[in-house]
Structures
1.
Amino acid sequence: MGIALKRHGRIAFAVGFGVLLLLLATASQGFVRDEGYYFRAAREYHAWFENLFERGLDAFADNTLTRDFGYNTEHPGFVKILMGWTWKVAHVWLGAVSGATGFRLGSMVLVAVGAAFTFLFGARLARAHGAIVGLLAVAFLFTSPHVFFHAHLAAFDGPIMGLSVAATYAFWRAASERRWVLPALVLFGVALATKHNAVFLWAGLGLAVMVARGRDWSFSDGKLSLPPLPIAWFLAPIAGLAILYVFYPYGWVHPLQRIGAYYDYHAHHEHYPVDFFGTMYTAPPFPWGYAFRMTALTVPLVTLVLGVMGLIACARRAREVDGDERLGLVLLLVSCLVPPLVISFPSVPIFGGTKHWMPMMPFFCIAAALALMEAVGSIRYRVVAPLVVVAALVMPFTDTIRTHPYGHTYFNELILGHQGAAVLGLPRTFWGGDARPLLVVLNEKAAVGARVYTHRMNYSDWQQYVTDGLARRDLVFVNDVASADWAFVNHQREYQDAEYAVWQLGATRPEAMVAFDGVPIVSLYRLGRAAAR
Amino acid sequence: MRTPLLIVVVAIVVSSTLSAVRCAHVAAQADFETVAGVVRSAYREGDLIVVTPFHQAVPRSLLGDLPLIEPRRIEPDSLRMHQRLLVVAVDAVGSARDELEALGTVEPLVSAGRVDALTVVVRDPQRPTFHLRAGLADVQVLASYGGGDPVHCARWDGSSFRCPRDSDWNWVGRVTLNLEDGPRACVWMHPLNGGRELSVTMPEAPGSRLLLGHGFVLSAAARAPVQVEVRRGGMRLYAGEAMPRSGWQTTSIALDRGSGPLVLAVKTNDNGGAHFCVDAWVLP
């Protein structure tokens, strides 16, 4: 066992490193709307480190912290600080990557860590099959087009997915091995310092232990006796808040007020419009089960079927086994179900497509891998089993390649992809990052000093395109379509007015567009003033 | 074969089959270009190019400079106002080709791969004798603010009339808005506050019926219904309520009473969020 675990450790490292290289090599996504904010935040936060020695103790004064960390305080600082450092090292010092990829690298590292722990979780849970389940789980995870897309971005959704599986694995180990308590606390703390939904991670871990040790529940003499919870679970909030505090410098001087305001912001988050089966939801109640239904339509069919089979098999097996294995199985089930369940309540904001419940995906893919290995285990001819395994990965792999770098627009075979989704009235895209390839057309055709309306792409994204040499420096960003020479239109039904405004201005024929199966994702229009030149 | 393995094999086969079906519904760019070239040559003034299904965008990128629509649902009344339709039908998910063909006599124009073009000579075309949006410059717009005669919203800036009060909202003009069923070229007619009446008086035009359409913008559903009224010579020809939900609704109104110009009036008890637009056609 010890040798196997050491071997798993080495494989996990290789998996993490391989995933990091893969993500770096394929980071051709456009800059999504929020990345612009995080690029800026990462730069501003990093300036604090650059000036640290020069400022001395003044660096810790409230006005300095507010100036350097007072932007984008609705998210903790850990990932943005990490992005700042990866940008500095990989882009500024080494010149190995573009500026944007430098920022994204920080996020990718955490996704890669998650990939390594996905392998470890799968390999440990499926001891009979060894490392193959872990490897298959990682393969299924990164052949899910939505996951593959978000795994690249300078945002928090990839990192929280990675840290969720890492913290859950460490917590599982910590339930029976003291040496894992500290890693579990650190990983949970880092997760809490990454995104607010780590709170649900802690709740899920507690729930999983209570369920896994359900046989220890008792009620006698009017007293309810609960199963013991691991020490790591009790210490997690303390360690978590301490680490959150460290990585939330904006709150160093006024922690209660400012960290409280951060959580309050998310407790009262505004509702964004969501297009779902032809209805535009702008306020609660949102449709029940939204996250489950979207998952059913956005995970490749083979992975979906295997994942559901795996969850059922895990639930059955959890009833038959005990101890460490039972806890692992229940952790997998709870970790898979809690994130979409939270989003599925009608009062919870459901903007942002599938990324908000993405922490479920490593566990779902482990379940898929388990189901696949169980299924092929019954094949009599040993040579056929690998062929079935490969065949199971072909369509997910093909669809991920096909939709890259627009994996967030993917819908699965059940509804015949983009066309079916358009007919059913499902969200076509979001986050405004699709226009990157059209910048080539813009650079080639726009007159010097042309004004560009970028629709859902924000100014910080535009600046980054210019900085990275992807958009010409002389082009001028404008907010008002009426004053523009060129206009991008992201085909989101809630923001489709922009295209009609362009039509009103006489431009009814797009100059170029990005489309899948003929369904437009983003269009570029040349407006009248530019056309007349 | 054990059940789990059977399920896995079935999933792989179904996935591959459905992916093949998906690919079979994707038209090639070259085919679009071939068809677009023929459609452009066949186009003549007054034709309308109709693309189906609505989500296919390549035809717009090739023919968008000509009158072209991609309707989410087929509205026969609206399409019958054209004598001839040039239909670009893509063999894709959600095609409404059959509904379009039912509007008249069909003649194939060109076929390339999964893209067909056909002409539909409309049966019983209904040329409007007056179209509100097209003839907007010829209407009169009145706002009743209470305590006196209605006042003219007279400031015509080439596409809209501005009312004297709260003119950021209370204007009447040509717009293309985002309604639940897609883009809608219509006339902005946001009701006044306090239940006051905003009306449009159309020039006299011969006709036996008025096709009236109205709807609320997708992103700003109203808080209260809007009362819509059509009058002629003091006689009420129609009174109805537009409920506060997104989507375009049409009503056919018989013009069998009264004489003189038609008046279209709107009012509401709560005009918050009432991003309302209308259009009207007088038909023979």
2.
Amino acid sequence: MSQFKVLVGKELRESWRSFKLLWLPLVFILLGVSDPILNYYMMDILKAVGGIPEGFQMVMPEFSAADIIAASTGQFQSIGLIVLIATFVGTISRERQNGTATLLYVRPISHSALFLSKWFVATLVAMISVIAGYAASLYYTVILYGPVEWNRFIAMLATYLLWICLVMALTVAMSASFKTVVAATLTIFLVIGGTIFESLVGSFISVSPWKLPSSSLALLSDFYDGTDFIINLCLSFGLLIIFILIGIMMCKSNASTTKI
Amino acid sequence: MGELQAVPWALIAPLLFIQLILMVVALIDLSRIHATNGPKWLWVIIIIFGNLLGSIVYFIIGRKQS
Amino acid sequence: MTLITVSDLTKTFGNQTVVDNISFSIEPNTSTALIGPNGAGKTTTLSMLTGLLSQTSGSIKMEGVKDMRSVIGFLPQYPKFFSWLSALEYTEMVAKLSGIEVKQAKLQSQKILEYVGLGAALHKKTGTFSGGMKQRLGIAQALVHKPKLLLLDEPVSALDPVGRREIMNLLKEIQNETTILYSTHILNDAEEMTDQLLFLRGGKLVEKGSLKEVRARFEEPRFKIKFSSSQQALQFASQSELHCHVEGEKVFVEIVHEQPTMQQMLNRLANSQFSIESIEKVTASLEEIFMKVVGSYESV
């Protein structure tokens, strides 16, 4: 436990001193505010920039508050996830490759503490970023599109944060298993590829971990089907534990690959 | 130019402001870091002219981490 | 009492045997030098002792110690630190990871950093450190938890002459307080501080013993006699029944079982008509011994 605390302290210092705790939330805030603002003022902006012929009528779809939150989620799901994965996918592998891990591994260190500290801080920073992004999105959405029900929003956010937990567990476990480049390729392929696959044929599949973001959004609307949701929730928790166990195992078995 | 004033700058401003902060943070980090992947002057250009993406790319691959 | 016993230690990567069946033991409060050319298996041997690599076969035993990692301090050839931590933060962190409690960790870190000469750089980020400072920090982090055995991989070979001198002096001081096993390919270093020499060649332990023992085995004492001309030298060699070796006007006479003695040699020369410029007894330097023990590997 004390090793875990020491290592979490180290990771937090790293996140703070490399500005991760600042720039990642800023990126998510930017992603979060862009949809509510740009959608609302699309017409004005197009007019101001010019290029709309005189008398041209464009029918802008009427967005609900939930639509805008969904659009922001779409931003987090693409650019946001890629940025998070790219930031944390080297967290273990890079230390082995540049040799900084060597002087930690020669100590009586627990590989569970090592992996859990990495995952904990990656998840913490990712969650702070996502929450900041949603807060910013919500603020503008409420001003421009009308209110969002609080309890529904909290339920949605909690579900989405579980998804972030899962993505970070996969990212850090990949980092424990492979070299940085391989880990990055595999993680982005699995997460982003899976998300695209889900958006294409998701309606034919009812149970998959990639459903988590869409079911979190469904929580916002009036009509949602709760039967598969519980199953997906359980599946995600199961996967989370499996990723963590694999990560700890790989941490241990790959310790000797550190550069001496 | 009257239409430019029609743009609700009060609401757009935060977008630009955050982007500016991000750029400044990236530049501060760049000035303090002892080594980057690739020449520093190149990163200055990428951060200033690359908007949001420039700063993100700098933080992800520009910093040499050890 | 023996501190650590290594028996039949072997490491293979694929079908390549990097460390081949080596055995040795180390007494407490002694210094042992692991000598060999690059690629002889020094770093692999040290890595197995630290537990970073697991051996293919053989054993490493320390009396009454369960997890050897808690009583070992290790300094790699090129120590890498987290550039965003200060020297004190780094040393404190690794001390705590070695199980030292918080207050004590801070105290011991400060003390050891001052001891290695980094007292003025406690709060400087390690990313700004020079090579010599990094080596000092490396020694500090290896000592902060008061290990029973200090393992050093080529502790001075990456440093310039000034840095090398400073670190050697520091190590000689530390030598009095703990047990050291270090690898090197620089003989002068080994000559300065060592109780036991281990010569590695191609993964095999080809020679071991104290500096004195190894010397006695390989020094090949000879008389070096300088004659006034090379003709005289040749003449002396051809007339003598001793094992002679001529090099210009110099003749080397081998000493076998302490024969002949200096007295005998002087008598023999005094009673002859040779004109002699000088005579001295010479022994092989450690450098020559090293070449003899280890260097022959290249020609194999």
